[in-house]
Protein: SprT family zinc-dependent metalloprotease
Organism: Allomesorhizobium camelthorni
Amino acid sequence: MPASNPTRTTYEALNQAYDFFNDRLFSGGLPACLITMQRKARAYGYFAGSRFGGRDGGEVTDEIALNPSHFKARTDRESLSTLAHEMAHLWQHHFGKPSRSGYHNKEWAAKMHEIGLHPSTTGEPGGKETGQSCSHYIIEGGAFARAYDDLAGNGMATLYVELWDDEEAKKKRKAKAASKTKYTCPGCQANAWAKPDTRLICGECEVLMLADEEEKEEAL
């Protein structure tokens, strides 16, 4: 059992980072937003303008989502650079002229340079700076790099990482799953669990119970 509150620790860290970057990179001009964690395939994060609000419609707010599935493979510095990337979208949503949904235009790219992130469709030097899908890389010595160093120096909590991505954990889960097989009686549909390749006889129907795989094959 964790000694701390993981939810509070995570969101306090993200809120702290948002406020810090807002002050250092955007002169404190960005409105607050709703930060969420979403497992969107092939994305480190995304921005959705005016996506959430109160039930009465009295308040509307933007969403910045980060994908926690990538936290382990990336450093906190890299993960929080995605937060700043999405904050540039939020800035453009409120104060600039965004293009069609998802397109990264020249205005956004210029803002990214300003905050110390180099836009790149490949996430590396040499990639295009605009496009429907566009990542970035950190400009060493730039505004973001300096801001992150100061933030980390102030004792920001590290982000939790997803342990299920660990290869050893995957092997253990696979071995545990393989240690038990579900068997079902084709007559009365009673279920039982045993080791793979066990021959089980239903006491009620006196017939051989079928493993899940066998049932699926017969149903085809």
About this structure: Residues 6-165 form one domain. The longest strand covers residues 45-53. The helical segments are 6-25, 76-95, 106-114, 143-153, 167-178, 212-219. Residues 214-220 have pLDDT under 50 and may be disordered.
